[in-house]
Write a structure and sequence with these properties.
The complex is a heterodimer of chains A (about 70) and B (about 575). By secondary structure, chain A is mainly β. Chain A has one helix at about 30-35, and strands at about 1-5, 20, 45-50, 50, 65-70. Chain B has a domain at about 5-205: Aldehyde Ferredoxin Oxidoreductase,  A, domain 1, CATH 3.60.9.10. The chains are: A mainly beta (about 70), B alpha+beta (about 575).
């Protein structure tokens, strides 16, 4: 399945801003993080199609997955 | 040396230094400004008349070496909202006022003549002097000239031309350790200071120091507290990307108010994002991290240089960048920085003023996306006090009235900040119910709705939002009393060592034995005191509502609306 994966803050360093990845069905966001060499413990915010999500969630064909480290502001 | 109340009467130009009344002794920061305003200001008074009072109070821990304890609260009846107001800022003033033994500075009355004045504070004096040189000058000029003129390390609290003109978007600026500006931004308290004809206040602590009841315990608690802050990953990210890291987060969540609150995402979000800003700052020799007050270990502030690598602005925050950026559709960080610098110099709240310009764009005064036009409007109209400039400088509500615009994002006439309440529903409750008029800091439900801090709730659902906002507003009222920066909350919400260490700090400073429940009760009583003032000023449940377009116009991309019933909103106050 093809997914658009977007990375933010320092997750972009030596990786990418946004890419379409071709991944096997049943891939979880945790699998995507591991594949990209992102430590799941550093993941703070996850969204699929702009909705809040979690590491265990499994996106579907055509989804957009956004992965952020732990960040905040205000 | 016991703390004192410093009082200035601008009607007869007298001053006094008095003992702290017992009922005020346990208060600091917001708790103290709101207590004093409630006790001494007639809620029905005109905010710009002689019966209003402007109160400054350092927090309970300000002036000590406690990490992040340098926030200064300013309070009064707000000319923007007509409610009680507390607004706090960094800079050096809170620490130095506390070292003067000043528990609070109360400024009352109003001069009968047309002269301007300056106030200076030391540990044993508070004096008023006529001021002529710096009247009409921008904040940058004021702090630069005073820094050259004043002996030793002194604090400067100042208003710009907007405050002198009594615009209700006017802020009060506080000099930071590098001679730049931080702001008591919201609610137009710069206009209150202007109505009292005070251009600036200087604070010279000389060799004054804050007494610590139990120094060893204080040191141990501060070590634990500082560690909790430094170890927190959000604190670390704040030092790298600043608060502006949120542009991409909130945009991705579909909650970034865009084009005067008609869209939840801004196409050019990455051009104004924290990531882009971080790279630009490094390319141009600025500073990505910087502390707004001595003792800050989070360092979310920064120095942003222009294309020629010269200083442009500092403390370039998410709220300011969102408001002039996405809300006005301005895609250039340099245009936004230019506007930020002009607003800092004129002494204007960047949220209120930029949201006002967004409403003016909807009215056709200028085009959405016209950054240079917005800067010209600020410089040539607002800065010169033309009729159009005064309409803008009196905030978003004022622009809506003047031009017949109905999509005016305000609650209690204060502009809604950078989280659309249709897509972060916890913020709908905070904006509607806070005693301050629309204010994100008073109950930052974004933390749990979007950032995964303090648990998670679905930002598009009403479930759990009222309780969340209530708990956050209570906790925030207490934190705002300590002098602590609100960003300690990221550690406090998720690190079990953080809050106990903060309470230990307060106990060691004053020789008390407060518990967590005492702190919660303090927060509750502050909110109730503030609400009672507002009720006496004429506010009721009907004022605790959002503008109707939030209920009627679905916000893309989620196409949700605010769907809390009036009864649900009112249940916030069931505590």
């Amino acid at each position: 399945m093809k997914l658009t994966v977007k990375l933010f803050a320092y997750f972009r360093d030596d990786r990418f801003v946004a890419e379409v990845l071709d991944l096997p069905p049943d891939t979880s966001i945790q699998d995507i993080a591991v594949k990209l060499d992102i430590d799941p413990d550093e993941v703070g915010i996850l969204m699929i199609n702009s909705r809040q999500s979690n590491l265990q969630a499994k996106p579907s064909e055509g989804d957009t997955v956004a992965i952020f480290p732990k960040v905040g502001g205000g | 040396m016991a703390d004192k109340i410093f009082r200035v009467n601008m009607t007869d130009l007298t001053t006094s230094i008095d003992d702290v009344p017992e009922a005020w002794a346990g208060h600091g920061g917001r708790g103290l400004t709101s207590t004093i305003v409630s006790e001494e200001v007639d809620p029905t008074c005109h905010p710009l008349g002689p019966r209003n009072k402007l109160v400054f109070a350092p927090g309970l821990l300000s002036g000590t070496v406690a990490a992040n304890s340098g926030r200064l609260s300013a309070g009064a009846k707000s000319p923007l909202t007509n409610t009680i107001k507390e607004t706090n800022a960094g800079g050096t003033a809170a620490q130095l006022m506390a070292r003067c033994g000043c528990k609070a500075l109360i400024i009352e009355g109003q001069p009968k003549d047309d002269k301007w004045y300056a106030i200076s504070m030391t540990p044993d004096s508070i004096t008023i002097a006529e001021e002529t040189d710096l009247v009409g000058k921008g904040n940058y000029t004021v702090v630069k000239e005073l820094k050259e003129k004043l002996e030793g390390k002194q604090a400067v609290i100042t208003i710009g031309p907007a405050g002198e003109m009594k615009m209700t978007a006017a802020n009060i600026s506080v000099m930071d350790p590098d001679g730049n500006l931080r702001s008591n931004g919201r609610g137009g308290l710069g206009a209150v200071m202007g109505s009292k004809k005070i251009k600036f206040i200087t604070v010279d602590p000389k060799d004054g120091k804050v007494e610590i009841a139990k120094p060893d315990e204080f040191k141990a608690a501060n070590r634990a507290f500082g560690k909790a802050l430094v170890d927190n990953q959000i604190s670390q990210a704040l030092a790298t990307y600043g608060t502006n890291v949120l542009v991409n987060v909130i945009n991705e969540a579909g909650a970034l108010p865009t084009k005067n609150f008609t869209l939840g995402q801004f196409e050019a979000h990455d051009k104004i994002s924290g990531e882009t800003m971080h790279d630009l700052i490094n390319e141009r020799g600025g500073k990505p991290k910087h502390n707004c007050h001595a003792g800050c270990v989070i360092q979310c502030s920064q120095i942003f240089n222009d294309k020629d690598k010269n200083y442009k602005t500092a403390g370039f925050e998410y709220e300011s960048i969102w408001a002039m950026g996405a809300d006005c559709c301005v895609e250039s960080l340099d245009d936004i920085a230019e506007a930020d610098q002009i607003m800092d110099d004129l002494g204007l709240d960047t949220i209120e003023t930029s949201v006002a310009i967004g409403v003016a764009m909807e009215a056709g005064v200028l085009e959405f996306g016209d950054g240079p036009g917005a800067c010209k409007l600020l410089r040539d109209e607002v800065g010169k006090g033309t009729p159009l400039g005064r309409i803008i400088g009196n905030g978003a509500g004022s622009v809506g009235l003047a031009f017949g615009v109905t999509r005016v994002p305000v609650v209690k006439n204060q502009a809604i900040p950078a989280y659309d309440p249709r897509a972060v529903k916890g913020m709908a409750i905070t904006y509607a119910t806070t005693t301050m008029g629309a204010d994100h800091t008073s109950g930052y439900a974004v933390a749990t709705n979007i950032l995964g801090v303090g648990g998670t709730v679905d930002p598009l659902s009403k479930e759990g939002q009222i309780e969340l906002s209530r708990n956050l507003q209570i906790a925030t009222a207490a934190i705002d009393s300590t002098g602590m920066c609100l960003f300690i909350a990221f550690a406090a919400l998720d690190d079990p060592d953080c809050l106990p260490a903060l309470i230990d700090l307060i106990n060691a400073r004053y020789g008390l034995s407060l518990t967590g429940d005492d702190v919660t009760n303090l927060g509750k009583s502050i909110l109730k005191t503030e609400r009672a003032f507002n009720q006496a000023a004429g506010f009721g449940p009907a004022d605790d509502r959002l503008p109707e377009f939030f209920y009627d116009e679905p916000l893309p991309p989620h196409n949700t609306v605010v769907d809390f019933t009036p009864e649900e909103i009112d249940s916030f106050w069931n505590f």
